[in-house]
Amino acid sequence: MQASRIHPLLFAAITLALVLAAGPLAAQGEQRAVEFRFGDQTVDVPRVGAQVELLPVLRLIGAEVAFSSAAGTYGVVHGDHFIQFSPDRLLVLVDGVLQEGSERPITSPGGVAASFEFLEQTLLASLGFRLEPTPSGFAIVPGESREQQVAVQVAAADFAATTTLVCTVARRVEVRVLVNQEHELGVHFVDALPRLDSSVPLRSRRVTALRARDHVLTIELASGVDLLSWHQLDDPSRIILELGTPRPTPAAAPEEPFEQDVVQPIVIDPGHGGDDTGAVAASGLAEKELTLDIARRLAQVLRGMGLTVRLTRTDDEARALTDRTAFANRLAARAFVSLHANSSTVAAVRGAETYYMSLDRSSTDAAAAATADLENQADTQAQERSPLDLILWDMAQSEVLNESAGLALAVQDRLNTRLDLRDRGVKQAPFAVLTGATMPAVLVEVGFLSNPDEATMLRDPSHQQGVAEAIAQGVADFVRPP
Amino acid sequence: MTHRVLAIVAAAVLVAVILIVLLVTGGRRALRETAPTPGEPLPSPTSAPQQQVVLLFAAADGLLHPELRAVPLPTENHERIRVLVSELLAGPGTGLEPAIPYSAELLGVYVETAGHAFVDLSAPPAPLTGSHTELMLVYSVVNTILLNCPSLVDVQLLFSGEEVTTLTGHMDLSKPLALNKRFIVQ
Predict the structure, then answer these.
(1) Which of A4, A228, A408, B59 is deepest in the core (most CB within 10 A)?
(2) What is the spatial distance between Cα A217 and Cα B38, in angstroms, rounded to a whole number?
């Protein structure tokens, strides 16, 4: 009798204790693991706080994972893909390309753990998978592979009546350009997913917004602006869109010479000179001679078009970089074209490229530069600069920059169509000779003297003439009145 | 006797269960307390004072390419820059080309509190040529430093202790330069 009374009490206590124990255990169980399914296989993957162990998931999809203690990195090999990442680091190397993860993976009991976002967006997406929620966890299913994603960099050049929008895409893609609705264009990527590279801000008075979603890059246009034409170029792959207000009677482009414009000459700057030889080819051809040769030819072609031309040097003489720009500023030049031939320590590097100015400075330095520039411009009336002055200075810089981009695009396009050179495209760099130019200013690198093939080509007078004519046509495209 | 034995066994089981509960919940609590949280730095897996850094080198496509390398990385920017530039000067591992085309020496590193860094390299023994050579050299150093030292704002290169206006007659090197990803492979 006594025993039968004690036992239920004890069992009740034991049951209570078990319930107390089971509660936290069950709660921990929910936190402890999450099921991942891949095909027929499933694996329970431990969680670490809000993060999840990465190695079991990667092994589930058949990836080989190795930790290099020498490099401090995890290497993941799956098919043709190779990913490297490290605990505590934001940067991830995916197939040789640097990417910035949204957060850092962490060292965990199982090796390395990260958020579900990192697992899906950075690792699985790069390997062609995505996560699909299931009642008990996630299924790993084929996704839009990273190969389908294509980075798109958009640059705009505003001209008086039109805007040229250049969408540089990382590889050749098939696209269709459709007018979605009034003032909105859709560039449809047939088998690729455009991803906007927003590292370069877009400045255009005819484009109000850009966005990329799924297969479509949407371009919002300012009021009254329409698509005039579009075409694609290769190497690098680009989609060129001409935007503007359609004219009722599109007249053929006038081919007759321009009226003589004595007020605003084109200033051509043959790079280097004097003791500054510049690059020298193995054949002995010096950059300072080549740039002067091409400059003379360019001047002749432009004059033939009725334009006024001035050269910063007409002989083998030294000129300071600042004097060259100052010369163009004093003449209130319509455009400034600095001619150069390139050189690389890597002989295989080749091609022609056109640069315009970049303001690669931190914001504090840019503000200091603006103040200094304003003070230089008004050295007789030293006064404190207001924020409005800085805004106006920035706007003026932006305007010149936009025009320089337009000139660079025009010149580079003509070089591409006229000459059989590798197109290295239009780029921005903080070049001294372009600093402080108050007119559209570009620096053209006509080819690499360090590349044996291009050095041979650049020696050829007919090639030099071709380069001069291509640049002249580009300049003419830019200064031609609408 | 039987009852007493049963009571002792039951009490022992109860104590055991309570101990298990305490151990499990206590253990879990302890684990939770030491569980890493996002953003909280942890020792590297090897617990060696090494960290992975990104080094930028030149390549045949005319762009800077990243190479990951584990190096002992000090937390202080001044020392960190010394390590990074020394690794760049040691050259790439495989497949890439040095972006600094001469045996340069690191002569000094200066860091201002506002996040401006100055790196003094020995001047090239002979004049370098080409805007491409200049862009690769300058941005391999500037970008490598700024990618690995997030608290820094910009970097100015000095050559043999001198501020230079340009190296090959193209870039304006008289001012510090911010991170520029345009010359890094995308």
Answers:
(1) A408
(2) 34
Same domain for A208 and A275, yes or no, is: no
**Inter-axis angle of helices A461-479 and A387-418, nearest 10:** 140
* ipTM computed for the complex: 0.72
Alpha carbons A286 and A54: distance in angstroms, whole number: 57
Total domains in chain A come to 3
For B88-120, the pLDDT digits (tens) are 999 998 789 999 999 999 999 999 988 899 999
- Helix extents (H) in A85-243: 116-117
What is the C-alpha to C-alpha distance for residues A425 and B31, in angstroms, rounded to an integer? 55
User: Which CATH number belongs to the domain containing residue A76 in this structure?
Assistant: 3.30.457.10
Give Cα A244 to chain centroid, integer Å.
24
Same domain, A158 and A183: yes
Domain boundary among A143, A168, A188: A143
Question: pLDDT tens digits, residue range A67-76?
Answer: 877 667 788 8
A179, A213, A244: which is the final residue of a domain?
A244
Closest CA to A242 of A161, A328, A182: A161
Among chain B residues, CA nearest to A110: B45
Instruction: Give tens-digit pLDDT for A250-271.
Output: 444 444 444 444 468 999 999 9
A95 in B contact zone (CB under 8 Å): no
Is A5 inside any structural domain?
A: no
Number of CB atoms found within 10 A of residue B83's CB: 16
Q: Do A448 and A388 sit in the same domain of this protein?
A: yes
Closest-CA residue of chain B to A32: B28
Distance CA B41, CA A15 (A): 43
Q: What is the pTM of this model?
A: 0.61
Query: Could you read off the pLDDT of A195-205 as tens digits, one per residue?
Result: 887 666 677 88
The shortest C-alpha distance from A245 to chain B (Å) reads 33
> Domain span at residue A67?
30-143
